[in-house]
Amino acid sequence: MKNKSLLGLKRGSEKLPLTHEIGPNFPSGFVCIGASECKCTVHQDKNGKRHLKTYDQTKFHCYSALAELQYKNVYKARWANYRLMLNALKKDNGSAEKLLINSFESKRSRNIKYWRLHESGDMIVRFKNDQAYLKALNNVAKYYLDQDLIIYGYTKAAPIFEDFKLSPNLRFTYSLGGKFDHMQDIFEKKARVIYYTSEAGNDPIDTNDYHAYSKFKGTFCHLVHGSNQTPEARKAIKYRRENNQFTGYNKKTKQLQEV
Q: pTM score > 0.70 for this model?
């Protein structure tokens, strides 16, 4: 039974192998101050029925939001994580760091080499220039600095990273297509979403987060994927399927890890 005083983390996924611990995950869109092209939010009515809300700027549906739409437990777990972290941040006494570490250790195995943050959601920013959550993550990274652990994630919350020095084992990739793309040069790593492999140009296409957790510097690409997508995205996914190209993750997805 899950300990409700801890954040819900997990080992591995359909995308990542068991060398990765994943989380905490937060509600998609609601915890994404920089979301634009991918902005979607899932809302639940009093009868427990959920629906997906898109916005004028939405070009494709956020993959993690689609999971909240499909699975009630996913929706509930992400909101529970968010409430736990907000309460810890309010105390401002190291509680956020303690919550993160205890939650990570509760699922950690000897094989864990990478901690992937925020499979859904983004940095918690409660008000303008709020760096409390970022500072907590950075302190946690420093705690694990000599333990051969890389902590990494994607973000569109560029403003809070300005003039902030990250621990060497904490790596963030700026996810292009957001409100703060004009600040992208703050980051050494950038990722952009493409529809067709031909759009990648000279940028590598990533399907296993290698370019996010490694020492790679530059821009890499993610192929749009997921069910219940926008018409343009569905057309591209159909084309790639017909041409035996990557279309998304499932239980049969082969994990292609760099050696």
A: yes
